[in-house]
Design brief:
By secondary structure, the protein is of the alpha+beta class. The protein has a domain of about 80 residues: Double Stranded RNA Binding Domain, CATH 3.30.160.20. It contains 4 helices and 5 strands; from the N terminus they run E-H-E-E-H-H-H-E-E. The chain has a 3-stranded antiparallel β-sheet with strand order 1-2-3. Strands 4-5 form a two-stranded antiparallel ribbon. The longest helix is centred in the middle third of the chain and has 16 residues.
């Protein structure tokens, strides 16, 4: 089975914030913005890292943590479902809710019967 690209994430899709890490580590942590928080705007998932003194390492860790969140995984599953049929989820719902695809039923003397629109 060959791999397919279902969804791509670029820097434009992310909000990358840097901040001072704080905590033990002395003056270096108090002077540099080595903590990183990455927010994926579309899914709302957040990854954060402040464990390393290097901002680059923390950025890598924050991105990895962001991709492991349940919100991000749900977003990827949704994108995969859209990609499978070549149709967006909204388009599928619109198609299903067209009047010719709906059947309205009601109780008539204890029996369910179709009610004409």
């Amino acid at each position: 089975m060959s791999k397919q690209i279902v969804a791509s994430v670029t820097k434009a899709d992310l909000e990358i914030q840097t901040f001072r890490s704080g905590g033990p580590g002395g003056q270096h942590q108090n002077k540099t913005d080595s903590g990183v928080r990455i927010i994926h705007r579309e899914s709302g998932s957040v990854g954060e890292s402040r464990s390393d003194r290097s901002q680059h390492t923390n950025k890598r860790l924050a991105f990895k943590r962001m991709t492991e969140t349940p919100k991000f995984r749900a977003w990827v599953v949704k994108k995969a479902a859209e990609h499978q049929d070549g149709q967006t989820l909204e388009a599928k719902v619109d198609e299903m809710l067209k009047p010719e695809n709906l059947c309205i039923e009601g109780l008539d003397g204890g029996e369910w019967t179709a009610i004409p629109a």
